[in-house]
Amino acid sequence: MRSVLLIAAKDLRIELRSRVFLYQVIPFAITTLVLLGFALDADRAALRNFSSGLYWVTVMLAALLTAQRSVSLERSSGAADAIRLSGVAAAKIFAGKSLALFVYLIVLELLMVLGIVVLYDATLTDAGLAAATAVVATLGIAGAGTLYGVLAAGSGVGETLLPVLLLPVLAPVLISATRAFGDALGASSVNGWAWFGLVGLCSLLYMLLGGLSYGPILEADS
Amino acid sequence: MTHAAYVAAAWAIGVVGPAAYAVVVLLRGRRLSRSVPASRRRWLTTGDEGDDGRAGGR
Amino acid sequence: MRSLLGLPARPASKAAEAPGHTGSRSTKLLGLALLAGVVALCLFAFVFSPPDSRTGPEGTPIGQFDAVRIMYVHVPSAVWGYVGFGICALGSAVYLLKRSAWWDRLAHAGAEIGVVFCGISILTGMIWGRPVWGTWWDWGDVRLVTTLMLSLVYLGYLAVRSLAAAPAARESRSAVLGIVGVVLIPIVNRSVDWWEDRTLHQKSTLEELRIEDLTLFTLVLGFLVGGLAFAWLLIHRFRVAWLDAEAENSEMLAAIEERRSEASTLNGTVAQEVAGTATEAEGTGTGAEGAGTGAEGAGTGATGATGREGTGATGRERQMEASRR
């Protein structure tokens, strides 16, 4: 557990120093929210209706950038090799990197909730459901992002490859998190907690698959 | 026949698609065969590195 | 299956006659059976089987009429496409356990054919949906949406396969992708199913059909012919994947050979010594892939090819060292 936290702390510290997240990812997310507003012709009712879907699409796009970043910053400095040589189990490396990615994304999501409240006129009617969904869905996105980030990295075309690999795989999370959020924002009358269950199932699956397959991938890379 | 155009289009895709793919695969096999010595085309010859088909493995 | 795909069909004495293609006696027979099957399927689908001319309680027609003939292509290709993905996942899993090249090539072949078949299934499904449902794309049809998502996942698999990476890294990465794709099937299916539940609910196509004897027979024939096509394609695609890896291998050996001859021209008098080190160079050659992966892992952005190049140079250096001695 200590090594997991160490790896996560390392990633977060690098990020705090480089400020890519602050100056690039967060502005990207806000820009996307604004662009989606333009695309829907700033129709107040439509924006409020679709705010949950727009929110999660934006989260996925920002997650792509963040996952990309989390892998590339290690590769360029040779840190990946150092970690691998440190003898920490692959599953722990995976957990640590996922945890760091999770922290960024949660920060981003908090800001974006403010964004949709301000820009899309959304109202949070069930904050508990929204928070639970966000935490669990983000665990899944972070797990899948970490796994696919390392899969796509080192190929020289990682920037274009990662979206192709990751987005179809995240589709179930997008569908179910959007529905659950729709309920939490009072935009659709579905059973949000049932959808929350599906989000949890997806996330569990991604974390399991990631933990199991991270080892063979690192092994083949070395 | 009702929906004749739809049926024709669907069957054209269903037959021409795999056929075109098969041609591509065959041509690629011919091209690659030239750069691989006959002894390594194992479905035609007795392999010299065991019989489990792992000769090209690492 | 194994013997069909990879094992010898002829004695070694005939090795020199190995033809320059991926065919063999078994695939030729399979191909003939497939052609006969296609002809039979066309006859049954267009001549013998009746159109779907069901009528409702008041005598109003509710059948699909001749559009039902699309089903004979659409349904089998969907099923065989999924079989392809299943083979990919199986091959990937066994590859990760045994690191066997055979299973890796099989997984590759399965994924590619799965994408082709699912693509055909999606297109024919859309063409069928237009006259019957009145729309090209029905978001309410769970199978259609699931199949599309899954095809996209396996397109990603093929994208990873096409990368110029060191073989061992490429194989492991794609193996993980191949397994994840199939694990996702139930979850994608479930989420789409729940999701479409709030929109119009379209019953799945086959449940709706009251299947007549001849319609059912034609559909089964479609499955058989689809299976023949699948098997034929799988065998050929497997052999192409095999040849591909072999060609990559022999390219590498040729590059080493080149370096070796370069080294021997440097100093003709120690030719014998060089010949002695040639075996050593060979040893380096087999390690080249491992070295290529190392370069990749180090994050230099080097592709497998550059890795190989580098090792080739190492071989050369060794030989030059030998010449100096």
Q: Give the helix tally of chain B.
A: 1
- Biggest protein-protein contact in the assembly: B-C, 44 and 63 residues
Structural class category of chain A: mainly alpha
Overall mean confidence score, pLDDT of chain B: 74
Intertermini distance of chain B: 57 Å
Unreliable segments of 5+ consecutive residues of chain A? none
What is the total number of structural domains of chain A? 1
Tell how many strands the DSSP assignment of chain A holds: 0
Class computed from helices, strands and strand pairing of chain B: mainly alpha
The first-to-last residue Cα distance of chain A is 24 Å
Strand content of chain B: under 5%
Number of strands of chain B: 0
Helix and strand run of chain A: HHHHHHHH
Write a compact overview of the structure shown.
The complex is a heterotrimer of chains A (222), B (58) and C (325). Chain A has 222 residues and is an all-alpha fold.
Write the layout of secondary structure elements.
The complex is a heterotrimer of chains A (222), B (58) and C (325).
Chain A: H1 2-18, H2 20-39, H3 44-77, H4 79-85, H5 90-119, H6 127-152, H7 158-184, H8 192-221
Chain B: H1 4-34
Chain C: H1 2-6, H2 25-48, H3 71-98, H4 101-133, H5 142-161, H6 167-196, H7 205-208, H8 213-266, H9 271-297, H10 304-324
Helix pairs in contact in C: 2-8, 3-4, 3-6, 3-8, 4-5, 4-8, 5-6, 8-9, 8-10, 9-10
Spell out the key features of this protein.
heterotrimer, B: 58 residues, mainly alpha, 1 helix, disordered C terminus, C: 325 residues, Four Helix Bundle (Hemerythrin (Met), subunit A), 2 domains, elongated
Structure characterization notes:
- The complex is a heterotrimer of chains A (222), B (58) and C (325).
- With 222 residues, chain A is mainly α.
- Chain A has eight helices and no strands.
- Chain A is 86% helix and 0% strand.
- Chain B is mainly alpha-helical and 58 residues long.
- Chain B has a domain of 28 residues.
- Chain B is built from one helix and no strands.
- Chain C folds into two domains: 209 residues, Up-down Bundle (Four Helix Bundle (Hemerythrin (Met), subunit A)); 58 residues, no CATH class.
- Chain C has ten helices and no strands.
- In chain C, helix 4 packs antiparallel against helix 8.
- The termini of chain C are far apart.
- The C terminus of chain C is likely disordered.
- Chains in contact: A-C, B-C.
- The interface between B and C is large, with 44 and 63 residues.
